[in-house]
Design brief:
Shape: elongated
Helix content: over 70%
Number of strands: 0
Oligomer: single chain
Order of helices and strands: HHHH
Largest sheet: none
Number of helices: 4
Length: 128
């Protein structure tokens, strides 16, 4: 297994790439926030099954989409609550509607908390 320490890196390897390959390597390295050398080392370890390379630009875009969707869901819940509070004939409503709404709201809050825990884990993982 390859160690992360500098003292174990005693071999220098030089090889040639074409323009397309260099562009890909540079763009990939930039998107992950690591150097060319570290990208290639991580690729070697990935092949050996030791490390996962995260393309942070794509991950952040996906997290941004998820956060926006969560915001839309929250707005919808707020609108439902507002309409429920403004409804003047509460006695005319079926109690099952309130029970179902409360059940769905509890499920949503559980999902939201799980999403928040997942976001924190992802953030902790990519910030190390």
């Amino acid at each position: 297994m390859i160690q992360e320490t500098q003292e174990n890196r005693t071999h220098k390897i030089t090889f040639r790439l074409n323009d397309r390959e260099v562009k890909f390597l540079d763009e990939f390295s930039q998107s992950t926030g690591i150097s060319r050398s570290d990208t290639l080392r991580k690729l070697i370890r990935k092949i050996q099954g030791d490390v996962t390379i995260i393309k942070t630009d794509k991950l952040l875009k996906t997290l941004n989409i998820l956060a926006a969707e969560q915001g839309r869901v929250n707005n919808n819940i707020n609108q439902l609550a507002k309409h429920a509070n403004q409804y003047s004939n509460v006695a005319d409503l079926d109690p099952k509607v309130f029970a179902q709404f409360n059940s769905l709201l509890v499920r949503h809050l559980d999902y939201q908390e799980e999403i928040n825990r997942t976001f924190r884990k992802i953030y902790k993982t990519i910030s190390q």
